[in-house]
Write a structure and sequence with these properties.
The chain is of the alpha+beta class and 350 residues long. It folds into two domains: 4-235, Rossmann fold (3-Layer(aba) Sandwich), CATH 3.40.50; 238-342, OB fold (Dihydrolipoamide Acetyltransferase, E2P). The protein is 23% helix and 35% strand. It is built from eight helices and 21 strands. The strands form four sheets. It has a six-stranded mixed beta sheet with strand order 7-8-9-3-10-11, with helices on both faces. Strands 2-1-4-5-6 form a five-stranded antiparallel beta sheet, with helices on one face. It has a five-stranded antiparallel beta sheet with strand order 14-13-12-15-21, covered by helices on one side. The protein is globular, with a radius of gyration of 25 Å. The two termini are 48 Å apart. The relative contact order is 0.12.
Length: 350
């Protein structure tokens, strides 16, 4: 498998939107997720890498070979990339074996069958070799699409929302099976998704995009626990927005006092973002404890979402293990895990 490098990329979809990426790499054998809301440019970036569109400016390299740039454009079929799309794009008139051998036309008939049979066996699809796509479940069709993409031994696999058509239970299983196979084969993958959970579940690195640009990139833990902006913090997971006021080297909030690492940059009123799991509930032991009233607890299996009312009447949501779920109507003491509390200074809070 090969490395993908995108450099000084600029591509205008229309008068009001352009994708602009200064530099992005997908190292060999790594799974990189392009994540972001609809219309942020992630699918356009994938199409440019695939050779389905020609960038207005910039360079794209695969395995050290420039496949797009000034005076250079290598077509999609000559880039040696594997493509997996949301609708799988299987040929309905071909069997599973026929679909997987389709990209092996330069091989002999014997080699085509041998390569396809081997990968179908590895993916647990051998028993479906003579079946047609309409005879398979959505998860099985997705695996066939991946097998077809892997069969020619591409330099990189490009996947655009490949799991979005599956129901929740099946999606989790297929994602886990796909991840195991991709890691086992050492495949280089650029995966597009709008689902933060999917990105965190699949990716070695996440590239979060907004308005055609990269907002932040790093490991799933980096983006979730060390976001560099309010957009990143709120896109990667739920947050409570809590009013606060700077008082020396601390922020005063209804959830407790929050130390300020850079007190000199803050003054006056502001807002902090608090992850639901950062709110810890306990027994009230003293009058100085911040407290909240439990309005409602919703059991979601391994954890519960707990709606709380603060003394001011404002509401926040906590997330806790189900075995720690409080009774509705109870008054609880509150403490905070400071690692999941975020403050992003703006022009009004400096």
């Amino acid at each position: 498998m090969s490395k993908l490098v995108i450099s000084n990329l600029h591509h205008r979809n229309n008068e009001n939107f352009a994708v602009q990426i200064d530099h992005q790499e997908v190292d060999a054998g790594k799974i990189i997720c392009l994540l972001g809301p609809s219309g942020c440019g992630k699918s356009t970036t994938l199409r440019l890498a695939a050779g389905l569109e020609n960038p207005d400016a910039g360079d794209i390299f695969i395995g050290g070979d420039r496949v797009a740039g000034k005076g250079v454009f290598v077509s999609a079929e000559d880039r040696q990339v594997g493509l997996v799309f949301q609708d799988y794009a299987l040929f309905p008139h071909l069997t599973v074996l026929g679909n997987v051998t389709f990209g092996l036309r330069e091989k002999s008939a014997k080699d085509r069958k041998s390569i396809a049979s081997s990968i179908l066996q590895k993916m647990g699809l051998a028993k479906f070799a003579d079946k047609y796509p309409h005879m398979l479940s959505g998860g099985e069709q997705q695996r066939v699409a991946l097998a077809r993409a892997l069969a020619p031994n591409p330099r990189i696999i490009l996947m655009d929302e490949p799991f979005s058509g599956l129901d929740v239970v099946l999606r989790n299983q297929v994602r886990d099976d796909t991840l195991e196979l991709l890691k086992e084969t050492g495949t280089t993958v650029l995966l597009v998704t709008h689902d933060p959970e999917e990105a965190m579940r699949m990716a070695d690195q996440i590239v979060l995009m907004k308005d055609g640009r990269i907002e932040q990139q790093g490991t799933p833990a980096d983006l979730y626990s060390r976001p560099n902006s309010e957009f990143v913090a709120s896109f990667l997971g739920d947050v409570n927005r809590i009013k606060a006021e700077a008082n020396g080297d601390v922020l005063e909030t209804e959830l407790g006092r929050i130390p300020l690492k850079n007190a000199h940059i803050m003054s006056g009123k502001c807002e902090v973002l608090v992850r639901p799991e950062a709110i810890r509930l306990g027994k009230v032991n003293g009058k100085s404890d911040p407290t909240a009233l439990v309005l409602q607890s919703r059991n979601l299996g391994p954890f519960s979402l707990i709606e709380l009312e603060l003394p001011s009447g404002s509401r926040v949501t906590a997330r806790a293990a189900t075995i720690l779920q409080p009774e509705d109507g109870a008054t609880c003491a509150i403490s905070l895990d400071q690692r999941q509390v975020f403050l992003f200074p703006s022009d009004t809070t400096r």
